[in-house]
Amino acid sequence: MYKIAVLGDRESICGFACLGLETISVCGEDDAKEQFRRLVKEDYAVIYITEYCAEMLKGEISETENQITPSVILIPGVKGNTGKGMENIGKAVEKAVGSLILD
Amino acid sequence: MAVMNVNPTRMELTNLKRKLVTARRGHKLLKDKRDELMRQFLELVKENKRLRERVEGAVSEANKHFSMAAASMSEESLAVSLMMPSQRMSIEVTEKNIMSVKTPVFVPEYKLADKGEVYSYGLAFTSGDLDEGVRTLSDIMPDMLRLAEVEKTCQLLSSEIEKTRRRVNALEYVMIPDYEDTIKYITMKLDENERSNTTRLMKIKDMMLQQSHNF
ipTM surpassing 0.95, yes or no? Predict the structure, then answer.
């Protein structure tokens, strides 16, 4: 039985609490890193993370890339959509195919 | 022409020939694996992109609603409304095997049977925007889970494809040509030895005839 976590600033993630996901609001880079490391260690299968917050956790997120769980998914926060999530898809394609073939 | 550092002997030649056969077979298998991985990957990436567009749209919209709700309600009442969620969601993770790459499959489990049971507050003191926001999120949740699954699979597949591609290229452009060149070199060397042996024998025969019979 795995859990789902939502990580980010409080305004962006408060809605997810209603759905029964675990929301963890972070303030500052150190706090974010600490919380993220804890989530990876515990049995969380999916971690939704706001793009703004993910910016601070680049290294930690790339470490989880080759593990089956957790699956770290970027979502837009209240500050708007930065297109980071789409960029990551492009990166995966580039890694696999050798060039960016998506339009 | 890159000849490996081996002794030109018959034994080495048979060994190399056997290795070449293995390398060719491995190359063919890996190439098939790469092609199949690529096919699956491209399908998944398309789905990934579609899902992500939809999820990002919905989450942004939900965020707008929440901002509106936060503006029209006091901070405390908003916090209180969202404090005690009635629904509880967890997931069961099973593994799926795509060309020997283990990928996760997420199956959601809800504490309450009714998935729509997400409003954890009374409707009297909350703004309609809050309801809208929560509903948007709960509608998009299945897609978000699917996105988590697909995006993870894409990441895992892409690194496996990269690895496989490197192996295929190493076999195709380095190992197999090297083996071929070395085999050719040894064959030439052995033939050359054979020929020099024959000429030597002929020469010795001539010399012996000369000595004994004065031909």
Answer: no
